[in-house]
Amino acid sequence: MKLTFFFPILLLLPLLASCSEKQVYIVYFGEHNGEKEVNEIEETHHSYLSVVKESEVEARESLLYSYKHNINGFSALLTPEEASKLSKLEGVASVFRSRPRKYSLQTTRSWEFVGLLGDDGRAKKNVRGERDVIRKAKFGKDIIVGLLDTGNNSNFI
């Protein structure tokens, strides 16, 4: 009786294993030539997925995003085998696994960088000789400092 209970589970193991190895891949076709409408581009992406997926429904469900404006491509949930098959199809420039990165703090010396700390590592005194600048600034709470790199180089000006 115990064997009959586990037999259906054993049949599902390969299916479960294939689900766990699916990852997000980016499929890139190159630049747009401007001949297709946005909905036609998305249909093209679905047609490529239909080649490697079991059904049209699975192909539509695996599509995560269609890049339709600046580049021509899509991201989808694929197995390594499906990604390999897609990479061999005509019209596909490249297929690569998405490796998202987390943003991390790029400096640990912000207080020194903006000149709020003295040589002794303590807050600099203001003009009245008080060390409350950092406290009044709420220690930088709710302040976001960003850098926008425009790509312009002052050497070319």
TrEMBL record:
Sequence similarity: Belongs to the peptidase S8 family.
Occurrences of domain Inhibitor I9 (ranges): 24-102
This protein's UniProt keywords: Hydrolase, Protease, Serine protease, Signal
Domain of life: Eukaryota
Matching SUPFAM superfamilies: Subtilisin-like
Organism, scientific name: Dillenia turbinata
Signal peptide: 1-19
Name by which UniProt lists this protein: Peptidase S8 propeptide/proteinase inhibitor I9
Record's keyword annotation contains Cell membrane: no
UniProt cross-references to InterPro entries, sorted A to Z: Peptidase_S8/S53_dom_sf (IPR036852), S8pro/Inhibitor_I9 (IPR010259), S8pro/Inhibitor_I9_sf (IPR037045)
GO-annotated biological processes: proteolysis
Pfam families, A to Z: Inhibitor_I9 (PF05922)
GO MF terms held by the record: serine-type endopeptidase activity
Keyword Endoplasmic reticulum applies: no
